[in-house]
Structure formats: C-alpha cells, structure tokens
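Re: the pair you flagged

First of the two:
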Amino acid sequence: MKVADVFRVRNPEIRALHLTWIAFFITFYVWFNMAPLASSMLKSVDWLTKDDLRLFAICNVALTIPARIIVGMALDRFGPRRVFSVLMVVMAIPALVFAFGNTMAQLLISRLVLSSIGASFVVGIHMTAMWFKPKDIGFAEGFYAGWGNFGSAAAAMSLPTIAITMYGGDDGWRWAIAQSAIVMAGYGIWYWFAITDGPEGTVHRKPRKASAMEVSSWGDLVKLILWTIPLIGVLAILVWRIQNLGYLSPMGAAICYAVIFAIVCYQIIQILRVNIPILKKGVPEDDKYPFSSVAALNSTYFANFGAELAVVSMLPMFFEETWSLSATAAGLIAASFAFVNLLARPMGGLVSDRMGNRRFVMLSYMFGIGLGFALMGLLNSNWPLIIAVGITVFTSFFVQGAEGATFGIIPSIKRRLTGQISGMAGAYGNVGAVVYLTIFTFVTPSQFFFIISAGAFISWVLCILWLQEPESAFSDEYHVSSVDLQIEEEERQRAALLGAK
C-alpha cells in the first residue's frame, strides 16, 4: 500500500478507512470536549471550582480502562460495525447530560460514564484489520489512529470558538458540547448503514467465548492472569486520588476497593472457565499463538501511549516555567507533540509494512523513545528553546511511530482474538497514563522524563525477550487454523438450523 492510495476513495477498503477514522475522530472530539471549555464553565456555573474540574478530569479516564476490555470482548462477538455505531449513539446520552447538567451529581456521573467513549479506539483498529491485508495493515492502522486521535487537538482548537462565536452567552459552552454529542449520535446511525464488517465474503473470525481471551498453554494462562490484574487494579490509584481530593470518604473508598477486588476475581474466574476446558482438551499446533507477544505489546503501549497522555498534560507548564514563556506560546509549542501524530503514526505503520520485519521496527521505535525522553530529562533553561523544541518533536516522532508499529503487529498475532488483544493493549496505554501521572505528582519534570525513559527501555528489553515476528505478517491473507475452520462450520450449521425453524 502506498501513501497516495489514501486518496483513492472509490476503493472500498479506502472508503472504509476514511469512514472509520472519522468516527474515531468524532469520539475523541467528544471525549476531550471539557478541557477547552473549563474556564467558560467556571464563569457560567458559580458553584463550580477548579478542584471540581480536576475531579471531572480524573473521571474522564476512569472507566476507559475497563471499557476497552469489555468493548474488546464485544467486538469479537458482534463485529466492529455494530459496536462502533452503538457506542457513538449511547455515549451521546451522557455527553448531553453533562452539557445541561445543573448539579454536581449530574456532571460527575455523566462524565464518569462518558469516559467509556475512550474505548472507541480499539473498535476502529478491529474494523481496519478486517478491511486490509496483513501486508498493508501497518500503514492502514497508523493512518486510522493518527488522524482519528487528532480529534482531541481539534476539540481544543475549535470548541472555544464555537461556544463564543456560534452560541455566545453564559451557556455557550453547554451548546458547544451538546452539538458535538448530537453530531456523534448522527454519525453513529449513519455508520451502521454506510459500512460492513470487511469486504463482501469476509468471514468474521470469532472466539469460542467472548468473556475472556483464549490462550495456548498453561504457562500462558498464568501470564494472562498476571497481566489482567493491573488492568482493573489500577483503578485503585484513581480511587486513592479522588479520596485525597476530599470527594470520597474512607468508607466510600473502602467500598470502591472492595468492588475493584471483586471485579478482578470475577475476571480471573472467567479466564479460568474459558481456558481450562480448552487446555485440558489440548490446543492444536496450528492454533497456538505466543501470549508473550501480547504481553510485550501491552508493555509498549503502556510506555508509548501512556507516556503521550501523561506528557501532553504537563508539557505546556514545563515550557512556560522553564523558559518563562506566555501560556499561549507554551501551549503552541507543546501542541507540536500532538501535531506530529498526523504524520508520525501513519509513518510508523508504513515503516512496519515496508521493512519486512515488524519486530525490528518495534524495537527501534522503543529504543528511540527511551533516548528521546532521556534527552528531555536533560533540558533546562540553559538550553536554547529551539533545541528543546527539536528534541520534543524528535521524541514525539518515536512515541507516535511506536504506537503505529504496535497496532501494525496486533492483528497478525491471532486473527479471531484481534478485538480482545487490541482491547488489552489499548487499556494498558491508559494504565500507563494513570501510573505516570500519579508519579508526576511526586517528582520534578526532569525526573519525570527520566522515569518515562526508563519505562521505554524496560519495554524495549521485554520486546527483545518476548516479542516474536507474527506468522503471515506480510501475507495476502491472515493465518486460518483448524479451530477457526471448525468454529466457522459450527456457525454455519447453527445458522442453517435456525433457518430451518
């Protein structure tokens, strides 16, 4: 696949790519529609405080992690078209409630529920994988993610203008948020009819059970459990932060911790229920896959996307305080980290396609991230500003490229588990953000950059040890195992039986 191919919109797969990145763009636009309007909210609602907005910011990411896991399971069962459409329509409801909420409870709960919209990313990853061949998947996934992810930056640039110019008045921010929600719901309805789950004749490979990921060995079963615990357990950090802000009593926190523990136990039970019968029966050789590769990619997304979310939130203040810049100038410079996304992430996927070795590309990008953040850790006011900006752009290039390379590998690991693997890796990006942002409250910016650098190098080592070049990574078609064919035949028989009735 060539870069110029993205303009050939008459091709069904290119049309599907554009329809899907636009859907992702809109969901991220809605997800990040609060921060640009924060000052307007404070002026309009006299009982709101800055601490309230900080709490809303925490709620805005709280459910994204479990939502990505749940959505990943739904993808493998219902397919991305249905999941994406339903997600956009349903999530418009809490967005509208937040827009017109008049009590703290309404704003808090609606923002918490709306955080689930962050799971939209993995839906498009799955849809794109159904439309593109393994040899082209890197660039396609990178283009989808890079341009769709820009929705957050577009919200920051456009929403204040829409609120002030188009609507005006004290409630302008409400109508701006409501407008974004209505557009998302409308697009969700249209998306249902505008696209299919892959080209005509595509077989949607489904796992036996959607409640937990299948593994190939007893050792992989242990690894899956160990990697599942932090996905839910990290919510305990959010509970602790909310309690420290004074919005949750010790009793309330204890209840939340108990719920988190119960969910972890439930998920482990589901993993055991799905996998023990499969492993006792024995997994055919042609159906096995290395879970260690999934674990390695979990670590890469923790270290690259997690770092991006954390760094974007502190970079403007870092430039403002270190080089005595105005808030506007610092914000524009910090925005360069996000703008690089438009080119670097598709390029990461393209390089992954062209190099003929996805593992080597992944290793190269992760090493570049470690080096880039180490250089950022050395920055201080004695460095020329232009050099600091150059190092920031250099680092962002590797961060975004690594994100593209990660999802250039995932669809080829195990085709029928793409939704669950994408959901797990995507969730680890949010786990990384929560962990890094929590660490940031205890360290200086320079120490913070060095810590992120260390995280990238640890992931690099894990990739050396665990990441394997996926089977049929550059083929015209994805690998189909005997179990895939068996599941397909069972589905065909079930459909024939229902038709006969």
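Second of the two:
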Amino acid sequence: MIAMILDCARDPVRKLVPGEPTTITYAVGLVWAGLMLNMLVSQRKRLMEIRQRFLWIDQVVILLLCSLVPGALMSLSLHKFGPVLALVGFVSYSVPLLGILVGICYTFDLAAFRRLLQVYIFVNSLFFIGSLAELLNWGWPGLGGLSGFHWIRYTSNDIVTLYSGFFRSPDIAGFHAANVMIASIMLLLNRGDKPRLERRMNPVWLFTASWSFVPLLLCGRRKMLVIPVVFVVTYLCYLNLFSRRDVRRVAAYIASVVAIGAVPLILLGNRSTVDSHQAYYASTLSDLAPRLRDNVAGSVVGTLQQSGVMGGGLGVATQGAHYFSSDQALNAWQEDGVSRLFMELGIPGVIMIGLAGIILIRRLGAEARKGGYAPLVELRAMMFAMSAGNLASFVASHQHFSSDPANTLWVLIFFGMFMGALAINLPANFNSAATAQPSQVPPPAMRPVAHFPGDAASSTGQPVGRAIE
C-alpha cells in the first residue's frame, strides 16, 4: 500500500524538483524491493507449495530467463554501455515476474487483497482530480506532463490535447484510470460467499468506476481505453467457457455500470475539448485493423530489417534506457510490445518466450476447465481478464510498462492470483453448500473450506470469496 501511494505521489514531486530527476521515479522501487524480500522470506513455504502443485512452472521460468541471454550477449558485444543496457533490460523483463509471486501470496489472504484494491482506488481517484484541473486551466503546481513535452495528437479533422494531470505523461494517467475502473468493477461484480450468492451495487465503487472515466477520456490514449473493453469481453467469455452460469445476468449488470458511467460524458459533453476526445475515441474500431497492420506487424518487419535475426541487444528499446546510457547508437523506435521483443531479444529469444507462453496457456487452460465453485470461478475470471486487458495494451505500446516496472508488477499481481486461485482445492460438496437456502447452509465452523495443499491455516473455516465481497 505504501508503494502504491508513493507511485502516485512521485510524479508531481518530480515535476516540482528542479531538473526533474529520474531517480525520484525509480526510488519507489526500493519499497517494492523490500516487499519482495519480505515475501520471499515469510511466504517461502506457500510458494513452494504452488511450485509442487504446478511442476511445469520451472520450465516456464527457465525458458523466460534463457530468452534474455541472446539479447544480453548482443548488448555486451555491440554497445559501449552494453552492461548497463543489459542490466536495465534484465530488470525490465525479470523483476516484474516477482509480481506473480506476490499475487500468489495474496490468494492466501483475500481480505488483504480487498484492502489493497480499496487503497489503489481511493489514492488514484484523488490524484485523478489533476486531469480535470489541467483541463480547466487551474494552474496548480505539478500539473501536466514533464517539462519540454506538449502532448498532442493529430487527427484528420482536429488536434487532440492529451492531459496528464498529476502524472508524468498521458500514458501513465490513462493506465491508472483504466485499472481503477477495472478494480472498481471487480468490487462491484464480486458476490463473495454469501448465501444465494447475491450481488449488491455499492455506490462507492459505482462512483469510482464512473469518475475514472474522466482521466481515461482526457488522456487521449486509445490503447488505454482498450484495457477495460478487453477486460469485460474476456470476463464474459471466461464465464461462458468455464462456468456457464448467469452470463446474461452478469452482462446486464455490466451494461448498467456502463450506462451510469456515461454520466461524466453528459456533464462534460458541452466542452469542445471533450467533444474532440470523444470523436477521437470513436475512431478506435475503424483504426484497429490498420494500426495492427502498420504499428505491430509492420514494426516487426521493420525491426527485422533494421537489426537482423539476433536483434539490437537487451535493453536498447526499453523506455528510459537513455537515462542510464549515453550510447548514441541505440537507434530504437519500437512503440508496440511485439516489435520491442524482436528488437531486444531477437528471433531466438522470441521463440523461447513463445514456447514458454504455449506451455503456460495449455497448463492453465487445463486447470481452468476443471470448473468448480461459482464465486471462485468468477474470481479467476476477473484476474485473468485484468491480465488480458493489460496484455492487449502492451501489444499496442510497451512504454508505460518498460519505463515503470511498478506498473508491470501491479498487473502481474493479478495474474499471480489467477494462478493461485487455480491451485485451490475444494471439496466436491462445497458448491452445493454455498448455493443452498440460508437455513440449509452449515455454520461457518462446519462449512467446507477452500485451501491450498498442506496449508494449515485453512482450518480457520474462512470460506473463499468472503474477502472481496
């Protein structure tokens, strides 16, 4: 929670300090490092249980680490500051994987994860005021992007201004706005472990989901709008594939949230600036195919023509690498995440990452097809959809991830929770007990318990799903 508060506070502080030192941005990494160290020591037993539950994890991790080796060798051999570039790239790719371990640990304590979501929503919602203040030209210190940048977007009919608010760039503002919206939807959709599995629309999370649309609209980054859209689509598809329970009801529930979330558009719709943003976002679908063709597929072809089979070296396309290396021969322009992989890892590294992804998808898919207790399936669907939404954003643009490992850590926490939730064992009669009439539900001490293999703490009688209801 401290790390997330500092993640928001660091950008306006950096903009107010003369010279806008990058050390302020990366200093929060010390807090994340402390979290990781504490987690690896205190949660080692539980992490080992997950490793024993999913024996194939070792294969995936080894392939991921091996995929970095060809790029690291290229950096060391091609660039004057090769060791620095290789280290920056290694941190960008490997350290965020610790977020998966944090997510796995949170699966053991969903109540703590619920508090984490609440802190993330409340802190970022407070900082979202900056986007509105910048739109209204309130002149507060710390508003707008970093000095020297005037963020605009040319369209066929207009020039769209991109608003950063208190964050250092429109990409970072849009990233947090999209993820706050998703976190709010998670708390809205979750029905916990209550009898009859009822949902209730909490007005607090309904407000934060609607409020987050303001900075999401004003940031002017369509790749950020994709995140909640992909989340909703993936969530419904997951339920349909692995649960087939009340998908229509969930879809109607989401539609009502979207309808209420349109309130900010109604309130701000009479401003010409907002009108230009709406028109720009409306072109997202029509531009999707050309953007994928030109910015992703075309960039991959251009990258291979530029850097060859082995790529340009690990770290050369990582956002912010120029702060750590004065090497003028980097010559990296890749915006999308796919061409970045080809630029930094080369074809051998991409092949190894592809193999790791195939193993991961096949194994996790086999676990997901086992189905299970309805609220647990919904929890898995939320975590998987959250990861899928941000993966789609990475494909379109990697800068907000490669320049800020904390963003990647935040996303991979959800993927780690998805893996942890797949490892939960439930007695066969758990689903029937939770969906019974109130008079038929056994008392908490008698209720079947969701637990990980060998977890002694599961004897407390705490049912899964209670934590984020």
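The chain has a mean pLDDT of 77.

-B.
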